[in-house]
Amino acid sequence: MSEPTTSVSEIMLLLLPLMMIGVAMIFVIIAPFVMYMVLRLRPGVALGDRSGPINVAFEEQLESSSTVQSAYQRWLEQTDDATRAGFECAARWCQQNPPRSQRDTDITMPQFLGIQEKGVSAWSFDPPYEDNQGVYVSSRTEIQFLADSVGMAPEEGGACSIQSNLPLPKQNEVYYWEAKMFNKPSTTNVVVGLSTKPYPSFRAPGLCKHSVGYFSQDGSKCYNHPFHMQSYGPAYVHGDVIGVGYRPRSGSVFFTRNGMRISEAFLGLYSYNLFPTVSADGPAEIHVNFGQAGFVFIEANVKRWGLAPMVGTLAPPPAYGQDKDSILIESAYTPSSSSQLRNDVATEELVRVPSYDASVPDTETPQHDRLAAQGICMATLRPSQAPPPYSAALADSCSPPPQGASGPPEAPSPAPIRGAIHALHGWFHAWHRLRRDTSAGTPEVPSTELVGVLVD
Predict the structure, then answer these.
(1) Any transmembrane segments, and where (predicted)?
(2) How many CA atoms lie within 13 A of 210 on its CB side?
(3) Positive or negative CA dihedral for 9, 15, 21, 23?
(4) Closest CA to 300 of 173, 167, 118
(5) Nearest CA-CA partner of 71 in 42, 39, 38
(6) What is the pLDDT of residues 353-377, one digit of tens each?
(7) Which of 231-234's residues contact partners 24+ apart within 8 Å by CB, and which partners?
(8) Where are the beta strands (DSSP E) in 184-316?
(9) 101: left (phi > 0), else alpha (psi -120 to 50), else beta?
(10) Less crowded by CB within 10 Å, the N or C end of the chain?
């Protein structure tokens, strides 16, 4: 009886360590997976630096869950009254002004034609100054935030933000832009990111729905709500250049700092059109580069990740000194007053159509000879010449035949009648021109008249 009992106890002593090893191995294998699922299904948990991108589309599906609502309530209980008041003010504004659909914010045909003509210069920052008085824009992309502006107080929203006039395109694989901290005090928190339209001008990107942002104060990133704040990269200071890259197909967003790529920050941002957005809670000056100059991030230059070509199809203005075929410059040589007209006539610089029927061409000028050889006869009214008086021309045309002439009177030839009509016509125009020149308060319209031309 002792031998079987001894054998069973020996078997148990051998199996017990094996069972303990097996349980330990199962725990080691399953425990990390369980912990990962717990952390993954709990939004807003602070992760380590460069812990990976956040799928914003997936997180937005969980916003109605109890986990997110409990995290929201805990954040409201822990935050101060001024920050809570600013958050509630922004929440009311977003509820009254929901983001526009993708169709309403797409680049329209006139905007597309403007991009074709201007290139990347079509993008600019045009703030509504009547509503956003804390920011000033010069040269289209140089942003200056003023100190103690409306919206910068925590209870008012905590920042002053500005968006570009056009969204990021979606034709290419990657689009990239940079913001340089041209003047940034250490006490100012600057946020660079993307957001939809409309967006509250008193809120930083990443703190309201459908927006993401990279914060300069502690290098954190945030999306949609303040309690989603997570550590991301290094803080940036005065002189740093922060870049934002966007892939339309996957909806991913990454950031760079001084030409060094940090990592992918967000995923799933493809449901809305995104606008480049910059904000600050104090005085600062930010210069944005959409591609009108070279990027600090070398890969973006090599792969041409700018928003559009640097130069469009619109022709540049003419170079200085090229005044050929210029209507404005040529019009400066035309006479501008009646006194100048009389001076030009006296100096034979201006040639007018004669007011009488000229029959003998002027053969003193060689130019007249050349034109006469081509079948063109030109006659010029000299200052010393004067048209024949109307009374003499009329007397010649209507005088009776001389005494002693036999036979019935001949019909007047058409030439004298034609000369009389032309003389009357010329006399009337001369009288009208003289009256126009001498009338007070009626300037003469500048004109340049050619000589009379008779083509054989």
Answers:
(1) 12-39
(2) 20
(3) negative
(4) 173
(5) 42
(6) 444 444 544 444 455 555 555 555 5
(7) 231/46, 231/47, 231/48, 231/49, 232/49, 232/50, 232/262, 232/263, 232/265, 233/49, 233/50, 233/257, 233/262, 233/263, 234/262
(8) 190-195, 211-215, 220-223, 230-231, 241-247, 252-257, 260-267, 275-280, 284-289
(9) beta
(10) N
Cβ neighbours of residue 153 under 8 Å, at least 6 residues apart?
A: 82, 86
Q: Say which amino acid occupies 367.
A: Q
- Of 233 and 68, more confident: 233
Check residue 451 and give its pLDDT: 44
Residue type, 29: I
Question: Which runs of consecutive H residues, i.e. helices, occur in 79-147?
Answer: 81-96, 102-105, 109-118
Class at the top of the CATH hierarchy for domain 54-302: mainly beta
0.70 cut: is pTM over it? Answer: no
Reduced to 3 states (helix: H, G, I; strand: E, B; else coil), residue 221 is: strand
Length of the chain as a residue count: 456
Q: Is 175 helix (H, G, I), strand (E, B) or coil?
A: strand
Token digits for 162? 């500005």
Average pLDDT of the chain is 76
Candidates 260, 446, 435, 449; CA nearest to 335 is 446
> What are the tens digits of pLDDT across the range 198-240?
999 999 999 998 899 999 998 999 998 888 889 999 999 999 9
Helices (H), 264-356: 298-302, 327-331, 338-346
- DSSP secondary structure string, 226-249? GGG-EE-S----TT-EEEEEEETT
Encode pLDDT of 19-41 as tens digits. Answer: 888 888 888 888 887 877 766 55
Q: How many CB atoms lie within 10 A of CB 84?
A: 17
**What are the structural domain ranges in the chain?**
54-302, 328-395+418-430+450-456
Q: What would the pLDDT profile of 120-141 be if each residue is shown by its tens digit? A: 999 999 888 777 788 999 989 9
Q: Residue 214 CB: number of other CB atoms within 10 A?
A: 29
Q: Which residue has the tokens 């002792």?
A: 2
**Torsion over CA of 113, 115, 116 and 117, rounded to 10 degrees?**
90
